[in-house]
Amino acid sequence: MNCTNEKALITRLNKIEGQIRGIKKLIEEDGECEKILIQISAAKSALHKTGQQLLESHIEHCVLNEIRQGNEEEVLKKLSSVIEQFSRLG
Questions:
Q1: Cα 58 to Cα 74: distance, rounded to the nearest angstrom
Q2: What percent of the chain stands above pLDDT 70?
Q3: CA pair distance 11, 21, nearest whole angstrom
Q4: Residue 40: other Cβ atoms inside 10 A
Q5: Structural domains of the chain in order of their starting residue, each with its CATH number
Q6: Torsion over CA of 34, 37, 38 and 41, rounded to 10 degrees?
Q7: Which stretches are transmembrane (predicted)?
């Protein structure tokens, strides 16, 4: 991966992984639904923020490099598709 700081991304994903394990543990221990839902929301938010940071880095590095090489139309089509897919709620 050459678009972002891989170490920072891995660190964020490790934290998210810990959140997911915590959610699983709450469910296994018959935790309160409200707490579980709050933790799911926090994990979704953290994952989305990670994606936003990756997208910013991708634009700043990969997309700009491709544009400088004269691939404007192709790279903008790909970028548009990626942004559309990323922004879908799920």
A1: 15
A2: 93
A3: 15
A4: 14
A5: 6-87 (1.20.58.1000)
A6: -160
A7: none
Residue 64, pLDDT > 80, answer yes
pLDDT for position 5 = 80
Give how far Cα 22 sits from Cα of 59, 61, 87, Å.
33, 35, 26
| Pair 13, 50: CB distance under 8 Å | yes
CA distance readout (Å), 73 to 7, 60, 78: 31, 17, 9
For the stretch 23-56, pLDDT in tens is 999 999 999 999 999 999 999 999 999 999 999 9
Contacts (Cβ under 8 Å, ≥6 apart) of 76:
none
For the segment 4-33, the average pLDDT, to the nearest whole number, is 94
Q: Which are the contacts of 89, defined by CB distance < 8 A and separation ≥ 6?
A: none
